Amino acid sequence: MSVENQIDDANTGKLIPWEDERTPALAIVARGDQIEPVAPSQFKVHSQSHPEKVYTVQSFRDKWTCSCDFFAQTHQACIHILAVRYWNGFLDSKGEPEKVVCVKCQSGDVIANGMRRNKSGVVTRYLCKTCGLRFTGKDGFQRRRADPEKIALALDLYFRGMSLRQIVEHFSQVHALKLSHTTVYRWITHYSALAAQWLDSQDAIVGERWHIDETVLNVNGEHRYLWNVMDSDTRMLLATHISRTRSLDETRTPLRKAKGATETVPTEIRSDGMQAYPRAIRREFGRGRYSPHKIVPSIRAEESNNLVERLHGTEKSRTKVMRAFDQENGAASIMEGWRVHYDMVRVHQALGKTPAEAADIAPLVGFKWHELLKLAVTRNVTADKQQTASTR
């Protein structure tokens, strides 16, 4: 039996199975770098007790296997299988279904009332005993027919490194759901923008030293500039922006976006020696003759811009899977989604937590992208209702 599937008994010193296998499985997920997708239904999971070992977890027609000794001996789900399932969003943090409430009156007095089949498969219908409304429990975000968990799963897999076509194959093999890669692309661009709007509304508490830099992206065969603004203390990626040029107005745009994501006013903004930076930073943050701008000579200097330079390296490793972006608007939405993933979902190795947690934003629990999209959609629907009411 694998040591990772056991714990020490305090009285006897013997190894006994975990009473609750969710604890070590979620710990694997929380580390952020222990699970690697190698195919649509195949994953590598690093051993926690023997770092040199890597186990292969596979899924075929909803049957899971693992190459570890525990699974070979027991044919039961090991913590590596559970970790992959949590990572993929198959289970929530408690392993229990979310309680269904009425979508009209929010009553919890709801009973199952038959089944129906739609494009995402068979879903349960419910009857609210309070107001009499009949509804389905999983009717999509904002009236989309697809299961919300599957939409969230598509975004999660994409920003973890899988291509659009790999995600389509994953849904086909694991969920028996036929999708086109254009459908997945629309999900990603639409909900990335909503999630970014929600994140910017949280008023992150960040430090007073920021970094700004630009790099080059390939958009439909043409070079575009990707701008990033990052906080030094929390590693929070405050803003991204894609532009055709490096003009003064385009240089000011990511700085203006960063201002909208936090109430903190920076006392120092580090950049390279590009000519537009001093004027852009002075116009956005300067007062009189004072400007927080500071030029850094190189990445080897003591006061360097290497935090955002390393961020560019992380982004480039992700955009290799994206190949060239098809269009500028889609590229901008996708990079906003990647910013949300970087800030809210991906645990930063140097911090031991997400940048958003370091910026005093409440952490997400369970399947993070699912919880994030529920918050983002709720905020968007509320804003639409308020805007409609104000125009009447």
Description:
The structure is a single chain. This protein has 392 residues and is α+β, with helices and mostly antiparallel strands. Among the domains are: 3-88, no CATH class; 203-360, Ribonuclease H-like superfamily/Ribonuclease H (Nucleotidyltransferase, domain 5, 2-Layer Sandwich). The protein has 12 helices and 14 strands. The longest helix is centred in the C-terminal third of the chain and has 24 residues, at 368-391. It is globular.
Highlighted features:
392 residues; alpha+beta; Nucleotidyltransferase, domain 5; 5-stranded mixed β-sheet; 4-stranded antiparallel β-sheet; 12 helices; 14 strands; globular
In short:
It contains 12 helices and 14 strands.
Low-pLDDT residue intervals, each spanning 5 or more residues: 6-22, 90-97
Instruction: Return the CATH architecture of the domain at 203-360.
Output: 2-Layer Sandwich
Helix-strand pattern, N to C? EEHEEEEHHEEEHHHEEEHEHEHHHH
The helix content is 40-55%
CATH level 3 topology of the domain at 203-360: Nucleotidyltransferase, domain 5
Shape: globular
User: pLDDT average, as an integer?
Assistant: 79
Structural class: alpha+beta
Number of strand elements? 14
CATH homologous superfamily classification of the domain at 203-360:
Ribonuclease H-like superfamily/Ribonuclease H
Report the major sheet: 5 strands, mixed
Strand order of the largest sheet: 12-11-10-13-14
Strand content: 15-25%
End-to-end separation: 67 Å
CATH class category label of the domain at 203-360: Alpha Beta
